[in-house]
Amino acid sequence: MARTGGTGCAGAPTDGHLGSRHRVVGRRGTRWARPWNGRDRTRRWWSTTVRVTAGRDAREADLDAAEVSYRLARDSDDPDAAALASLRLAGLAELRDQPAEAVRRYADVAALRHPVTSPPAVLWLARRAFQNGDRPAARALAHEVVDSGDGRLIPDAWGLLAILAWHDEDREGAVAAMRLAVDTAGQWHWSFSRSLGEMLAACGDPAGAADAYRELLNQPLLTGADADRYVQLMAIAGRVDEAAAVLERHAADGEPLTGDLLLALASAHAARDDLEATRETLAVFAPTGARCCRRYRCGPT
Length: 301
Hints:
Blueprint: E1 22-26, E2 29-33, H1 38-74, H2 79-95, H3 99-111, H4 118-131, H5 135-148, H6 154-167, H7 171-185, H8 190-202, H9 206-214, H10 224-236, H11 240-252, H12 258-271, H13 275-296
Antiparallel strand pairs: 1-2
Helix pairs in contact: 1-2, 2-3, 3-4, 4-5, 4-6, 5-6, 6-7, 7-8, 8-9, 9-10, 10-11, 10-12, 11-12, 12-13
């Protein structure tokens, strides 16, 4: 191929050549082609940069205005407003990627011993200590959150304690702590139940792990992976017949994501070597799956 100026890929000169046209010689003969238009590309890049910069500037302006408001509230005579504003200022430091300032501000909020704002700050410090490898400090702070009695944060604190115990190779303690996270989370137990299931599976208890995943089957945020994992664990535990019966009941109840349940049910029938039931389930899934795809825009409409 012959052309004016250096080249990278076809039709893109690397030396910024901006001539009107250039000749390209190839297997199909000689043809004239339009060159890479550096001016248009620069114009598009500049337009995009201006939009991004404007958005960033607007965001910074919003953060600056928020910080001024929070500082005024922090310096007010209202102790509750001051404590809440201090927590918000710590969050702003974290949002602005100022880790040292965030740690200092969260520590100040924790030191206030305020019943509403201090527990979230202590939990943040506990997670930070764990990330930094200081597990004893993380454990002490997490227990402090549990002792605070703040029901919003206690499940997260127990979940962190479970992870800390797991890293310390205390599997029994980890499972016990994760069970407490599930129990205290109420209807919002999904992530904790998944973690509990995987812990039990790693401990060689597939039946217990399957029971943990079974609690996810009637949740609105069920994923296909949850149902499939339930079938896998039940098959390992030798309870695949029970798994098929459970999934049939849930699918018959018209759960929001029935398609995922039907696919898992087909897997359960296949694990039982019941090919006829597998084909029947997949036949039911075909129209159901199409409706799910149209609803969630993940497939043809």
